[in-house]
Protein 1
Amino acid sequence: MTSPWPSPHDADRSSDPTIEDAETIATAFARVLRGLAIAVPIGNVLAFTEALGAVGIDQRSRVYWAARATLVRRPEDVPLFDRAFAVFWESRTGDEPTLEEELQRITIAMDTDDSDDDDGSDPDAADADDDPTIQLRFSATEVLRQKDFGAYSDDELRLAQQLMAQLRFVGQPRHSLRLVPATRHHRRPDLRRTVHASLRAGGEPVERHWREPGQRMRRMVLLLDVSGSMEPYARALLRFVQAAVAGRQKVEAFAMGTRLTRITKELGSRDPDQALRLASSRVSDWSGGTRLGETLRRFNDEWGVRGMARGAIVIVLSDGWDRGDPQLLADQMQRLQRITHELVWVNPLKVTPGYAPLARGMAAALPYVDHFVEGHSMAAMEELARVVSGAATRTTNRKGNGHA
């Protein structure tokens, strides 16, 4: 494949890059930055593509500032970005390399630059050099943790499935009606154990025993938005839902689109591929429209309020885009919050710089959410696990509604 980069000899020639050229360059460079553990959401890649269409691809300085303005989110990433861009620009002369080849090429170039600085110089001069040396170590797992779900390949999805199976979602336990032996003084005496112990003391209740309510795991309910706007992320999040259902007791899973579909049984198989096939065949409105308010009303009426969501941890995985009535969604979110222990909303778009919940559905639902977290990567799923386990501080507090 011929490189979309213009020849260095054509630097002064004006060009009007095609959309395909801009998309190719933006996607390839974003893959390189993600491979170097620089977070680059898909929204930033789209912004970079639009910027290339405006400034062209023939002048290095214009492309550099377009990339830096749209792809760099943290000041500490600028030095690594600069060196990666320099190697990326100079190396685009042949077929498009794979991510591993590009990372290796950048690593070799950086190592070469560092070794050239030391050739022919004395140790004192080397010690006097204040320019820090960047050491890169490529890890497929680490790259995958930071990579946006929307850019996953099929092989990466299968690897992510294995990583998701290792996540532990253990929320705060709830009290059970079953009494268990207490390790300290309690208001409920255990007469049976006390009498049994008294036999060793001639019938005198010298040693007294107590009982207290036991604890049990809370139910978890996962509501996955499978509408068209969620398509880049739904295929990865469905694997996350499957791992949660297969690896933990008391987990219920539903797909939300234009209708509500219960997929707990289909995802319960220990074979992920079989579970995903069954779930996909079960959901008839995949990549269709969204009726969040209506689907939540059905969930509340048929399952949630009747008992499934009472005292449970409910997780909604959605970007908040809704074609229905936002007031209906707000009413149903309020109903759901009143009976749940924790109500968590996972939005893959939250990572986008400058994100604001401007979508009508998201704006209507947010006041009733206990935790509003990202959902675009494996690292975000790990943060979600910490939120569910109670390790994170609440982003919002419930007012007037006690926990079940």
Note: DSSP finds 16 helices and nine strands in the chain.
Protein 2
Amino acid sequence: MRLQGVDVAVIGAGPAGMAAAIRAKEAGAQRVLLVERQEELGGLLHQCIHNGFGLLYFGEDLTGPEYAKRFIDRVYDLGVETLLETTVLEISPERGIRVINKGGLQSFRPKAVVLAMGCRERTRDQLGIPGGRPAGIFTAGTAQRLVNVEGLLPGRRVVILGSGDVGMIMARRLTLEGARVEAVVEILPYVGGLIRNEVQCLHDFDIPLLLEHTVTEVHGERHLEGVTVAKVDPHRRPIPGTEIQIECDTLLLSVGLIPENELSRRAGVELDPLTGGPTVDQWRETTVPGVFAGGNVLHVHDLVDNCSWEAELAAEGAVRFAKGERTEGREICLRPGRNVRYVVPQRIRGEGPVTLFLRVREMEEGMRVRVGDLWQKRFRVVKPSEQIKVELSPKDLRRLPDGVAEIRVECEVAG
């Protein structure tokens, strides 16, 4: 494939990458190239055989493969060029891209780049759980692939550490396949995933949920034989004397996701330590001109629909850049304030519409989330596991006084 003359290159073909490539083509880019290291489009959607996808984007309740198929068909219908089984080795600050595949090493320089590499799971090494190195310890996503794609059951007696969405979904999935889930163990006083998954995956199947607990040790030499679980104090430290042992042959880890940004770092993109992803403006342009980012590579989303929507914003910005159009105007920084963990984008320019995503640090009831004097909304409860989406119109932004350089995004007690 001739790689010169590409208008927009999209790195990663999951729900964000496919949506970005489609939107770039629809927005007028002549040549859009979608680069994917796997042998097919869709990312991890193929192993997510449960429903709950597309409720917002398509207005339908779809499984992961069904959601992927909608985008895959559109990719090919629009004539987006695809480069599968291709690994991106490097992206330079000048947008030079080096890739390798069966055809060898190739280099090209598109007019604009959209980063859509997604995220990866935290592993046991990052948690530092004491004990040996027995077989039987998996991330929840790895177990999901084993069961749903490979047709393999990782174990018969399972403990799941962390109540993220994939962990809770796998608790239900393993139960349906005949395994016994001994417990889902969560260090926080509330689940780390969506409430609907807590109800449908745990409560409906009578799966024990141990809140304010963590795994303090694994047991076994060649294969996992059990784990020690202890209650934690308000500082999330194990409380001596509260330990219990649970016999199991499998431990699944559902303890958070990390945006994949090794390529972003090498490109010179500034990363936000609060999100683990790039710092961007409202068009999702990074600090490297012409390089945009969207989806889980930017910050981890609750819903796949929002991954796709955000990537479309990045694609629109990339097409504008490729056509030589730039957003002018003063730059205003968005700063997380009281009980706000992060806000994306981190800066805005001009008067275009702005879509914000934010997360709170701690669960609170009876709160108001406020974006400066531009937007506010009351919430019965706010939780770190539930992302908040805010839409600001050009009219909202025109209300900003001259000279404003910063907007605080805060969660405050509703009066």
Note: The chain has three domains: 1-121+257-326, 123-255, 328-415.
Protein 3
Amino acid sequence: MSKKNRREIPKFATPIIETHCHLDYLDDNELETTLQRCSEVGIERIVTIAVSPDNLDKVLALTKAYPNIWGTQGIHPHEAEGYTPEIERIITERCSDPRIVAVGEIGLDYFYDHADRAVQRTVFEAQLQIAADLDMPVVIHTREADEDTRSILQNFSGSLKQCGVIHSFTSGLPLAQYCLDQGFMLGFNGITTFNRAENVREVVAATPMEKIVLETDAPYLTPVPYRGKPNAPYYLPFIAEKIAEIKGCDVEQLLSQARDNSFSLFFEG
């Protein structure tokens, strides 16, 4: 899309919570610029997500350096083969920190298969057990793994009292309905704006407002009208507009409910 077709980022009265991004991927200058622009468009709080043994410390450090940043601790399925007893100990201990709000990003990814599937399942279960033991919510990644994700979550049904969020939801309606019935929220991002994402918009339409949280997964999945540029939390207003359009509601109503949902999920447990 040419520059002349790119809209200014809209501003709304309701503060916005970014529930899933990767701020540690930015250098210091990029981070400061990003946070300034977030403030200008009303991003109130940001949850930056851990994915690997290499960024657990970086995520925690960001939460200590900035009052509007919170974080998670966990190992992504791509990095499952790097999960060790020492990493498990670190995640478990860090979850007592008030700036760490969830175990994640954990789950299964059978699309890329960067790690052995059996190892992915074992590591997913181990981290779900941490969350169950500590009464923490989880941030779950699942891609092309609906059956195994559901099967594993069924094994933890009732023990995950805080549940959590299935982030960047792109799976089918059956998994969506199962997760919603179990008490999970669904995270939606710039994919909702993509031309060929009717499957995701179908899930958005079927998801109760009380179960939706907003995310960018920045620096990935940049929404229209800025596709082709690195993503950032300050593009969340475009995602909110699209979800409100799908739900047939006012954007402020959507933002208010999503904010309440985010507080309930991460900050009021």
Note: The chain is about 40% helix and 15% strand.
